[in-house]
Design a protein that fits this description.
globular; 21 helices; 3-stranded antiparallel beta sheet; 554 residues; mainly alpha
């Protein structure tokens, strides 16, 4: 069977159809529909399905405008088509930003047609109104998004958790009531109605067309609030899925577009610790797996929230398409279930902010906030780098406020200098055993630790030897003079030992353990320290590398 010439089919890497876009449904004449279809298909050939879906939504708005203006049968498109579409959008209640995006997308297609399908558009096309929705005016009062500090993040999470508790209680209670109906232990009229609807719909809520064939049931349904309200007692809709998405996104500090497509098997066991679990996801732009670890015992940790979403959405898997069955954030919408679109998530965010009277923010702001909070908590940019799964701190530095960080760093340096000056002037009291803890200690990896008993590194307790004493390349207390030939020689010897250990780990089958315990140090040596050593010092250090001994690892 040949494909309809006005239908565009997006195909996945496996050769299977992902989604189709039917230009027959737009209500346009054949020539106009064919022109838009060709522009859509060829200009977006390398784009993702999500991008195509967004463009398709905008095309339907444009087609509705043409039908309303009674020019859906005009060929070619009239020269004022963009002007009238601009006016059409201006009169809508969409935000200026949304209007701008829609208008830009349609302008892109129409201009493409003028270049490639000149018979489809009047040659005198007017494209002057491109600036309409975003006119810069320095005197206007522009609402700026507030910085998401720790208190604001807590407020966002508190609001999300409050909604999550209500959603879980609502759905779990109704599902329990429906189970009790069969045993005769429940006489809830609401549960009986929902049970009757599901039974009449062969396992799910019936469509309006089918429901109208049973006038008695339809009347009861309308009296109880309608199928949209009633279905929310049994299945999570887009509004119900959003607070879970928001809380998990906030905890993981992930890319919001990537996290929207979390897969149902995203929770993994931690490779080392049984009390922790890991969430993994793919960030297509970076091309490698992202991860975040969480404590198993925290009730609202991201992996535990994922477990709840899995349980609530399990009945929806059979309603979703083959392509979407693997995704976590499935939402019920009538006769089907799918992941809310990117625009849909933004719409839900705006409603969420309004419901809880929160400061205005965007989903992408949560990633930046997560970076700064992790940096502040650890006193190191490396903590933010690891949380954001960046390959380089240079990338991470784009996400954090360098001014705040420099001020904090200056304070730490000033305190360290004062401590050093005091010890030099006052000397060391040999009779006080605690004084030995103030003397810098040389570690096996060639660094000098300011005080391994101070509890600087995360997880270490003050008064006890640092738990990361052999991996203090990530510690904010490390002092690493890169102009000292002896120190650089030890760094080189350490890197040599780590490379040998890496080869052994592959051969002996404990590569994952190497990645956990030793790879961070190797990465810091290769990417953060040795590249900053001068060529002269490096050459001199290489001559005495063999004089250093590094413990045999593992």
């Amino acid at each position: 069977m040949s494909q309809d010439p006005l239908v565009v089919v997006s195909v996945g890497n496996d050769g299977k159809s992902i989604r189709s876009f039917d230009f027959n449904t737009l209500g346009l004449n054949i020539a106009s529909a064919r022109a838009l279809k060709t522009a859509f298909e060829l200009s977006l050939s390398g784009c993702t399905v999500e991008t195509k879906s967004q463009m398709w939504r905008d095309i339907k708005i444009f087609a509705q405008h043409l039908c309303d203006r009674e020019i859906s049968g005009s060929t070619p498109f009239p020269p004022t088509v963009l002007n009238t579409f601009r006016d059409y959008l201006s009169s809508s209640n969409r935000s200026n930003r949304h209007k701008y995006v829609i208008f830009t997308h349609i302008t892109r297609l129409i201009v493409w047609c003028t270049r490639n399908l000149p018979d489809a558009v009047d040659e005198k096309l007017n494209i002057d109104p491109l600036h309409t929705f975003y006119v810069r005016d320095e005197n206007r009062n522009i609402e700026k998004r507030a910085k998401l500090d720790e208190n604001k993040i807590k407020a966002v999470l508190a609001a999300a958790y409050a909604e999550i508790d209500e959603i879980v209680s609502r759905i779990d209670s109704m599902r329990a009531e429906i189970k009790n109906i069969a045993s005769g232990s429940s006489n809830s009229s609401l549960a009986i109605l929902i049970s009757d609807l599901v039974e009449f719909g062969d396992g799910f809520f019936p469509s309006q067309k089918i429901l109208r064939t049973n006038s008695s049931l339809a009347k009861r349904t309308v009296s109880a609030g309608g199928t949209i309200l009633l279905s929310s007692y049994l299945y999570p809709r887009a509004r119900d899925i959003f607070p879970f998405y928001l809380a998990i996104l906030c905890q993981c500090s992930g890319n919001p577009m990537s996290m929207r497509l979390l897969e149902r098997d995203c929770v993994k066991a931690h490779p080392i610790r049984s009390d922790r679990r890991r969430i993994v996801w793919e960030k297509k732009r970076s091309g490698y797996e992202q991860k975040a670890d969480f404590s198993e015992g925290r009730k609202r940790s991201a992996p535990n929230l994922v477990d709840i979403v899995l349980r609530m959405t399990e009945p929806l898997v059979t309603l979703s398409s083959i392509q979407e069955k693997k995704y976590l954030f499935l939402a019920y919408s009538g006769s089907k279930a799918d992941v809310p679109s990117w625009q849909g998530m933004h719409d839900q965010l705006n409603r969420f902010i309004e419901r809880h009277n929160l400061p205005r923010f965007e989903l992408r702001d949560l990633r930046r906030a997560g970076a700064e909070l992790h940096r502040d908590a650890a006193g190191s940019l490396l903590a933010a780098k690891n949380r954001l799964n960046h390959r380089s701190v240079k990338t991470t530095s784009l996400y954090v406020s360098q001014l705040d960080y420099r001020e904090a760093s200056d304070k730490v340096i000033a305190e360290a200098q004062a401590s050093l000056a005091s010890s030099v002037i006052g000397g060391v009291n040999a009779e006080n055993i605690e004084a030995s803890k103030q003397k810098p200690i040389e570690t096996v990896f060639g660094f000098i630790c300011k005080n391994p008993w101070e509890g600087i590194a995360k997880g270490s307790a003050k008064g006890s030897l640092c738990t990361k004493f052999t991996a203090c390349a990530t510690c904010p207390g490390a002092i690493i003079p890169l102009d000292d030939i002896a120190v650089v020689a030890k760094l080189l010897k350490t890197l040599e030992q780590l490379k040998d250990t890496y080869a052994r780990a592959i051969n002996e089958g404990w590569l994952e353990r190497f990645k956990i315990f030793y790879e961070p140090t190797q990465r810091i040596l290769e990417q953060e320290l040795l590249p900053h050593v001068s060529h002269q010092v490096l050459r001199s250090a290489q001559k005495i590398v063999s004089q250093n001994q590094i413990p045999y690892l593992e």
